[in-house]
Amino acid sequence: MSGMALRAHFDGKKIVLDKLFELEPDAELIVTVLPNPQEAAEREEWFALAAQMLERAYGGDEPEYDISSIKEFNSDYAGPDYAGR
Fold this sequence. Notes:
Blueprint: E1 8-10, E2 15-17, H1 37-58
């Protein structure tokens, strides 16, 4: 039998296929539990809010800071080697 995806639900006691389908004995199955639609919608709202706050903090009107505006270099920073260090 080739692989396929079948919709199912949990009735509180067992997993039930949504449509009748003949399975062979000892057929190997993979069960994926999908997120609750309400939880997924709430998570999307949080992601949208986070993106909005990041846009506000780092939006197009944020000034570009030149390397010369750094008053004290962080010697613990292991990033790119800046000129003037």
